[in-house]
DNA sequence: ATTATTACTACGACAGATATAGTACGTCTG
DNA sequence: CAGACGTACTATATCTGTCGTAGTAATAAT
């Protein structure tokens, strides 16, 4: 199992990555994360929705209601220009973070 | 700056890595981390000592007092066999974690 | 005597992740 | 047509690791 403490700093980044491709909503994002990682990582619903709130508050995403006439109304999220900037920064940060952690990792048998 | 939320899941691993080489104490470990990362990452004292407590409680490290006659008595830490096992697991986990996060990282310009 | 350096300890606050539970709406099946 | 199932959330409370702040303790240097 993957400890979520590591992903912690990147759950926002994961969501933004998916929103870069197209606007989406909670359930779909959750499913995509599962698929893309072959079920090795799943973001809990509460984690996901609290991330949406955080991202909104920071101006990294906007939301609007879907127009579906059947089923419950979805809240769609859209990445903002600020969100794109933030995403890029996190990607750069990741390179550094990886280097740092790997200084303390040994391949042992 | 490196967000400590990412390192979060690996601060224990970092400490164990250093204890694999030789027994050590808080201040020295703190300095080594700074050196090894060219000051790009520093573990706060409180974070460090709370990690020692956690590692002790889990049986991953043992402690004993130094015999220095000058200066304050140091508490030395020693990694246990369980600590070594745990360290190895975390190293394997890291490989997976890295793969997962990198699925969501793009090199953009 | 005071300051610097080393080596901690205590305490409280905060943020992100998560468990648990519940709401709301629609489709499908017997 | 009732009840299960799937989708799409919301609310609340708790836990854990990190960190700010502050204080203690011992010795060496000035």
Automatic annotation (TrEMBL), chains A, B:
Q: Name one Pfam family in it.
A: PadR
List, for all copies, the residue spans of the domain called Transcription regulator PadR N-terminal: 15-88
Question: What are the TM regions of this chain, as residue ranges?
Answer: none
Native organism: Anaerosacchariphilus polymeriproducens
Q: What is this protein called?
A: PadR family transcriptional regulator
């Amino acid at each position: 199992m993957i400890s979520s403490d590591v992903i912690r700093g990147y759950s926002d980044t994961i969501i933004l990555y998916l929103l870069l491709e197209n606007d989406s909503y909670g359930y779909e994002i959750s499913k995509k994360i599962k698929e893309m990682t072959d079920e090795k990582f799943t973001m809990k619903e509460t984690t996901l929705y609290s991330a949406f709130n955080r991202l909104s508050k920071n101006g990294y995403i906007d939301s609007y209601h879907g127009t579906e006439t059947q089923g419950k109304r979805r809240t769609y999220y859209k990445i903002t220009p600020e969100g794109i900037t933030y995403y890029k920064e996190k990607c750069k940060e990741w390179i550094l973070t990886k280097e740092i952690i790997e200084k303390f990792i040994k391949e042992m048998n």
